[in-house]
């Protein structure tokens, strides 16, 4: 049992407290043994999958493609597209050619899962993001997985304006030559 009380004086207005313990002195409890894991777990971070390159191709085929699109097709391990588009590729594109399945949308996740980790290029008509396969792939795979190399399509605003001889900045009105002289 312990008793505590105030006794004595330690200067003006100060008191000291004395504490008296009776019985055995308390002993500290032993700490539990440390548990070490036998082997630390190492987490490996795998690199992100290569981007899927979506390439717009026109009726002019290989000849109408830019250097970046040609290089992507030359180095692709898998090229996915419509049969007509796949037929426009020259032999210098050695990747496996895979035609789109039908129906397309429900088959896309399985098609890309079957080729995980491989460099994939997708052929599309014109501008793939203008109501094309690019939008579908962005919804299903995620836009961050795509690299898009568009080809002008007949409905692209810039191409339409150029073919009509109209300036895109003038609301479809033809460009007029500048005046020969400025009026004061």
What's the short story on this structure?
The chain has helices spanning 67-75, 83-87, 104-113, 133-141, 157-164; strands spanning 2-7, 16-21, 52-57, 78-81, 96-99, 120-125, 146-149. With 184 residues, it is an alpha/beta fold. 17% of the residues are buried.
Molecular structure report:
The chain has helices at 67-75, 83-87, 104-113, 133-141, 157-164; strands at residues 2-7, 16-21, 52-57, 78-81, 96-99, 120-125, 146-149. With 184 residues, the chain is of the alpha/beta class. The strands form 2 sheets. The protein has a 5-stranded parallel beta sheet, with helices on both faces. Strands 1-2 form a two-stranded antiparallel ribbon. Strand 1 (2-7) and strand 2 (16-21) form a beta hairpin. The N and C termini lie far apart (111 Å). The model is unreliable at 167-178 (pLDDT under 50).
């Amino acid at each position: 049992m312990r008793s505590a009380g105030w006794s004595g004086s330690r200067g003006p207005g100060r008191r000291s407290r004395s504490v008296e313990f009776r019985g055995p002195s308390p002993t500290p409890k032993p700490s539990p043994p440390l548990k070490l894991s036998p082997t630390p777990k190492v987490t490996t971070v795998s690199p992100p999958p290569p981007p899927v390159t979506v390439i717009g191709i026109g009726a002019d085929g290989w000849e109408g493609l830019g250097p970046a699109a040609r290089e992507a097709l030359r180095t692709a391990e898998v090229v996915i597209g419509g049969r007509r588009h796949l037929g426009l590729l020259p032999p210098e594109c050695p990747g496996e050619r895979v035609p789109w399945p039908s129906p397309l949308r429900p088959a896309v996740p399985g098609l890309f899962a079957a080729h995980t980790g491989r460099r994939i290029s997708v052929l599309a008509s014109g501008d793939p993001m203008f109501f094309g396969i690019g939008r579908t792939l962005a919804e299903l795979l995620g836009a961050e997985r795509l690299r898009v190399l568009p080809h002008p399509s007949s409905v692209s605003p810039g191409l339409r304006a150029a073919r009509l001889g109209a300036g895109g900045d003038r609301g479809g009105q033809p460009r007029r030559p500048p005046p020969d002289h400025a009026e004061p």
